[in-house]
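Hypothesis: this fold can be encoded by more than one sequence.
Test: take the structure tokens below, design a sequence, compare later.
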């Protein structure tokens, strides 16, 4: 049986099954979740991992033992769970470990209306109460209702982005044996889309590649399939299908910053003058384009809890992250990779240019991508970088260290979970970006392990 302090993270629960996370823990968390949230009813969904069904069933037992009624949606993506929480007005729990390897599982929790539960908004209290309840069994009292929410989810997304009138598109989708293989066919059914499916078979062992589109090697299959099939676009989802990576017709990656800018422009047409959230390592092209289209850009720290909190505070119409998470006001301020993909498909299908031409206007700068360095003394590394760049740009420390010069910027921040420093650099000129990136990495390298 695992240590709850180890598996309860800042925003969710994740651990190796059964060494760190098992059914008695899931049952205890179910009871604690109801006690802490005061929920009279809870909605639950799970991904395709072998351990997800027994863990979800254990959670349901725990929740019902505290007299809560449970709506069990069965298989679903994380954004389907958010849809369930929002449309039903219920707190929700999704069993998934997202892009983590097969031996992992976890839980993402939210209050009614898909409001996230994090360490400072109830997750710590759930952890502490669950620790007291592990091994304590009680008779389920609340009712259990099994409900297929996939049709309602698909209908809702199709009301938010109308694809019925776009030109015919050939679309390669790599579901990575994850939940995109469950949700994409339901959403695309009957639309003018010729679907080229890759790895739609639900398989929590991920036999083809990891369901993590942030790693370039996991995009090779979708890139090859786009070129071989002559497709207009490729889409790659992570395991729980809340993130989506876009590939153009040449097989090249489209930056999540370009996707953020494209979707922001579309949302600002519907909500002129609205706020758009972006984290501080998205391209500087994002706030520029938002302003040019009459919107108000707001910059946040990295992390979905910061994005969601700022969206709720400002009533923002949309938010985007460098990690291919996209958040929508008309989706309960929650993130949906498929909804973002539908916006890109609509933008592509409403005109005749290829995707590479369409997104060129949203790609203004040269970016390094995220470069990680293992560093024993992160504070010393940051101190040396500050010293080296003193007088060369403006400093801010909203999240790590950001230095902004003339036509360039970089951010160096510590990982929340590993002894790593993460560097992102960008410049109008690729040579200058490379020089800035390499200078910072050389300084950091002097205090690396």
């Amino acid at each position: 049986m695992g240590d709850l302090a180890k598996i309860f993270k800042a925003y969710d629960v994740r651990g190796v099954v059964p060494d760190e996370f098992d059914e008695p823990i899931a049952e205890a968390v179910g009871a604690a979740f109801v006690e802490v949230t005061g929920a009279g009813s809870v909605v639950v969904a799970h991904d395709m991992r072998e351990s997800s069904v027994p863990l979800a069933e254990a959670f349901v037992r725990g929740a019902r033992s505290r007299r809560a009624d449970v709506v069990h949606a069965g298989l679903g993506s994380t954004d389907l769970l958010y849809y369930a929480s929002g449309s039903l007005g219920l707190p929700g729990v999704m069993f998934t470990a997202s892009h983590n390897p097969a031996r992992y599982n976890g839980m993402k929790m939210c209050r009614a209306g898909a409001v996230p539960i994090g360490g400072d908004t109830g997750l710590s209290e759930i952890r502490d109460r669950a620790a007291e309840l592990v091994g304590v069994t009680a008779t389920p009292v609340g009712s259990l209702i099994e409900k297929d929410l996939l049709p309602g989810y698909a209908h809702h997304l199709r009301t938010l982005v109308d694809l019925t009138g776009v030109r015919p598109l050939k679309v390669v989708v790599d579901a990575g044996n994850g939940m995109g293989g469950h949700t994409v066919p339901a959403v695309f059914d009957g639309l003018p889309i010729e679907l080229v499916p890759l790895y739609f078979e639900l398989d929590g062992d991920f036999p083809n590649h990891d369901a993590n589109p942030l790693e370039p090697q996991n995009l090779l299959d979708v890139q090859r399939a786009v070129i071989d099939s002559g497709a207009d676009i490729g889409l790659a989802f992570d395991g729980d299908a809340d993130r989506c990576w876009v590939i153009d017709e040449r097989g090249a990656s489209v930056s999540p910053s370009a996707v953020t800018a494209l979707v922001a422009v579309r949302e600002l047409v519907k909500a002129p003058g609205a706020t758009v959230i972006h984290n501080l390592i998205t391209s500087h092209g994002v706030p520029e384009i938002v302003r040019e289209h009459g919107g108000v850009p707001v910059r946040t720290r990295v992390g979905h809890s910061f994005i969601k909190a700022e969206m709720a505070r400002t009533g923002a119409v949309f938010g985007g992250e460098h990690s291919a998470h996209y958040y929508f006001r008309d989706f309960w301020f929650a993130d949906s990779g498929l909804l973002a993909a539908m916006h890109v498909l609509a933008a592509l299908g409403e005109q005749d240019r290829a995707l590479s031409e369409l997104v060129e206007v949203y790609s203004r700068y040269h970016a390094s991508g995220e470069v990680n360095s293992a560093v024993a003394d992160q504070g010393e590394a940051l101190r040396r970088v500050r010293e080296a760049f003193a007088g060369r740009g403006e400093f801010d420390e909203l999240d790590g260290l950001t230095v902004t010069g003339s036509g360039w910027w970089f951010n160096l921040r510590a990982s929340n979970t590993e002894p790593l420093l993460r560097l992102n650099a960008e410049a109008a000129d690729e040579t200058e970006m490379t020089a800035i990136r390499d200078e910072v990495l050389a300084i950091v390298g002097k205090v690396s392990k």
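The two ends are 33 Å apart (CA to CA). The domain at 4-148 is CATH 3.40.120.10 (Alpha-D-Glucose-1,6-Bisphosphate; Chain A, domain 3).
Hypothesis status: open.
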